[in-house]
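Technical annex B. To support the medicinal chemistry partners, we prepared a structural model of the target in complex with 5-O-phosphono-beta-D-ribofuranosylamine, based solely on the information shown next.
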Amino acid sequence: MNPKKMKLTKIMVLVSGSGMNLQALIDAERSGKLRNGTITAVISDHPQAFAIERARRAGIPVFVEVPQEELSRAERNLELSNRILERAQSMNINGIILAGFLSILQGPLVSAFFGKMINIHPSLLPKFGGNGMYGMKVHQAVLEAGEKESGCTVHFVDNGINTGTIILQRKVPVLSGDSPGDLAERIRHEEYSAIVNASVILIKIVNRGAVV
Ligand code: GRF
């Protein structure tokens, strides 16, 4: 079907950091790569995230939803997840993309968007994923383990941490003398097309109304 004649698929993007993956998605939408997908809202769990600025510049409504630090870890994750679910439902969101989002999502949000919510992680899952594995910690662990290759993974979000079904992976070599920053940089270049391609798959799934 001509994408212009299809109903829009409303996407919400969740961010915590610099938002370069978000930027890749914004650019992809502008160039028509997301087909009928449209980034309808961005949510940041961090008020200083540069991703907020990227969303504003692109004219996308952006909401800051800060975790309530006074709650226990489990309560905090659930309370934040519930706020995100409310926003998603009130905006008729069809799919959710975690593009460098550090909070752990739980409860009814995960059930409501099962098979419709994806995350990008900078390692070849199931290696170097899970609790506490984010940012440079991932690349440091890869180097310490003497891995010959690393990369990124886009997967569906389930109730675990980085345990959902894998959609796609991109590999890069680990080179001798690499610092965590060198490796992160090499992987980043793969992340942008990985997140866009996986988002196109997500959008197709949402369009079909399929659940994996
Ligand atoms: C990326 O490395 C992504 O894989 C990870 O967090 C980082 C986000 O970077 N989950 P950015 O905010 O998209 O620049």
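Notes passed to the chemistry partners:
Residues 15, 17-22, 51, 99-100, 120-122, 152, 191 surround 5-O-phosphono-beta-D-ribofuranosylamine (CB under 6 Å).
DSSP finds six helices and seven strands in the chain.
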